[in-house]
Amino acid sequence: MADAVVRHVVTFGRVLREAGLEVGPGRLADALAGLDHVDLTRQDDVYWTLRQTLVARSEDLEAFDRAFRAWFLRAPTAPLRREPGGETVRLVRRAGAESKRPDERGAEGEKESLGYSPEELLREKDFATLTSEEFALVSRLMTELAASRPRRRSRRLRRDRQGRQLDMRRLVRASLATGGDAVERSARDRIHVPRKLVVICDVSGSMEAYSRALVLFLHALVGSGRGVEAFAFGTRLTRLTPDLRGRDPERALVEAAKRVVDWSGGTRIGASLKAFNDEWGRRALTRGAVVLVVSDGWEREDASLVGTEMARLARQAYAVVWVNPLKGHPDYQPLAAGMRAALPSIDRFLPGHNLASLEELAEMLSGIERRHAA
Amino acid sequence: MKVTSIDELEAALAAADYLPDRGLATALYLSLRLEKPVLLEGEAGVGKTEAAKALARVLDSRLIRLQCYEGLDVAHAVYEWNYSRQLLHIRAAQEGTVREEELFGPEFLIRRPLLEAVESPEQVVLLIDEIDRADEEFEAFLLEVLSDFQITIPEIGTISAAAHKPAVVLTSNRTRELHDALKRRCLYHWIGHPSLEREIDIVKVRVPGVPERLAAQAAAFVRGLRRLDLAKPPGVAETIDWARALTALGRQELDAEVVEQTLGSVLKYHEDLLTVRDDALQQLVEEARAAR
Predict the structure, then answer these.
(1) pLDDT score, position B41
(2) In a domain? residue B129
(3) Residue B1 domain flag
(4) pLDDT at position A229, please?
(5) Could you give all domains of chain A from N- to C-terminal order, each with its CATH number?
(6) Three-class secondary structure assignment of chain A
(7) Would you state the pLDDT for residue B46?
(8) How confident is the model at residue A99 (pLDDT cuts 50, 70, 90)?
(9) What is the pLDDT of residue A166?
(10) B47 and B142 share a domain?
């Protein structure tokens, strides 16, 4: 192949990498090998060959198309850079300021629980009133918490003498010595694996005091193993799972903040749930999953949409759990229109305003059965 | 047949009653020439599985299909021992004369799709359908098979693909992200909904005896449905089913009444059926009738 073509493709690969695609040497080699087999004067064939060898995810197709137009067709396009992370700074600063503000309920709690260990005190303390040291301790405890996950029976089998299925391979081998008679029982049984868990977390202004703690909890959940998907919404929905995969929760928080552009910008629960159902529910992400919605239920727009979309969600999911930090308040009544509309579709309704309530949540998740009353 | 250009493959697929767009034809062609699996993604009903079937018809090869599901394991994907035969064999023989190697030999092996594809002396098309439904453990195993086209059975040894590597088509509905390593082995093609003209052509090819006008109106109507905000927008598969139903009813063209009666073969969700009725339905019918 002509050197010029090779150079062209290699440079194009660099352009794609800048646009956020993962283009390794293997893919470039495939692209060049592919171009060997097509007519280079046919622009559409060149386009398809490059696209099919260099792109691996449908989410990257748009970026690829823009890069292709810019690079091969010299068409003017908007720059491919990601949005700057101006939001981050605001979030971190605000969260820090928040943690120093004294809160009546938190102070009361401390008075009441005199004589308990510091950890014990911390468990009951509202997230909105934590200092940064307390926050660090809470985040460690959360990691332990997140390890308990709802389980389902897998179809995979493991050796188990009390099991229900005979281990034929072992049996046949053993029968050799006895002329075809099975003397000893070899059996296998299904193992239990974690059930899929989908978390959809409200990070809008009304939830701000809790979002930081909850993002940490989400991070611990995603880190607890496979099969956890996390989403955040405010005025719209974004997927958080990739941001939460890293090891460092604080960084995960910063990364998440970058993506959730409308952090603290009002809530559209119904529209966000609809976006979730349309894109992810349709792909059966929620089928057989425990879905955890974390929100105070303050819908800025039409509350009836919350009802419709929650019903859609509940039909697909194994069970729906709603966590509302406001429910931690003794006088709480689900009066918010969005919350009321959602209630009929909820299997379990829990607070989530402090560590103790997250513990309750984790315990409930590990033993959840379908269709509890809320 | 031996395919030597994209044009040729495109024509051959059309002759096999499958009308791909240029992108899909390119993907399948490159997959054959580079001997790499191709991963097809797209909404349900856009013809991912059909593409593999059509490819098998074109190549005049056997199609071996592995339908993935949660919990799919080696015993169902690769091989299993035929235990009842083994036990009978032990019983029939004189006591103590059966050796273990004999018992775990090829004649007692039940071949599942992957082993069949690797062992086959002729080229086959291996369709691994809905890979996203299988567990991640299985995906890792599949990765090994797809990189070397060989399978190891502890009792027998390693079996490698004969002269021809199978042509491999994987499909995914994107219920979860596939492992990068697996994607790296594959060419990737996203199948979108076809253009109106192509969809009309597809209906005409797949529904024998469909009146020209009906094909055009049905395709235009379904296209209109995809613009709406539906829980499950219909794919080409639904257009074909519907055109078939309408043809069976002896229809020459669409009207609101027949659409109402038959819409269940296009929309599979109750809430979607509720969205598309009365005025919305009337308007779509009018648009579809005006299309040609």
Answers:
(1) 94
(2) yes
(3) no
(4) 86
(5) 3-72 (no CATH), 84-150+195-374 (3.40.50.410), 155-192 (no CATH)
(6) CCHHHHHHHHHHHHHHHHCCCCCCHHHHHHHHHHHCCCCCCCHHHHHHHHHHHHCCCHHHHHHHHHHHHHHHCCCCCCCCCCCCCHHHHHHHHHHHHHHHCCCHHHHHHHHHCCCCCHHHHHHHCCHHHCCHHHHHHHHHHHHHHHCCCCEEEEEEEEECCCCCEECHHHHHHHHHHHCCCCCCCCEEEEEEEECCEEEEEECCHHHHHHHHHHHHHHHHHHHCCCCEEEEEECCCEEECHHHHCCCCHHHHHHHHHHHCCCCCCCCCHHHHHHHHHHHHHCCCCCCCCEEEEECCCCCCCCHHHHHHHHHHHHHHCCEEEEECHHHHCCCCCCCCHHHHHHHHHCCEEECCCCHHHHHHHHHHHHCCCCCCCC
(7) 92
(8) very low
(9) 73
(10) yes
Of B70, B87, B100, the CB nearest to A180: B87
Task: Please say if the pLDDT value at position A207 is more than 90.
Answer: no
B50 and B68 part of one domain: yes
Last residue of a domain, one of B191, B207, B224: B191
Residues of A with CB under 8 A from a CB of B: 22, 24, 26-27, 30, 33-34, 37-38, 44-45, 48-49, 51-53, 55-58, 61, 154-157, 168-169, 171-173, 175-176, 179-180, 226, 277-278, 282-285, 287, 308, 312
| B169/B63 same-domain check | yes
Task: Decide if B39 is inside a domain.
Answer: yes
B36 vs A: CB within 8 A: yes
Residue A247: pLDDT band with limits 50, 70, 90: low
**Among A16, A37, A54, which would you mutate to test the B interface (most chain B Cβ atoms within 10 Å of its Cβ)?**
A37
Judgement on whether residues B258 and B278 belong to the same structural domain of the protein? yes
Last residue of a domain, one of B151, B167, B191: B191
Q: What ipTM, to 2 d.p.?
A: 0.83
User: Does residue A367 register a pLDDT over 80?
Assistant: no
Query: What are B18-30's pLDDT values in tens digits?
Result: 999 999 999 999 9
Q: What is the pLDDT of residue B269?
A: 85
Residue B169 is assigned to a structural domain of this protein: yes
Q: Please tell me which residue, B167 or A101, carries the higher pLDDT value.
A: B167
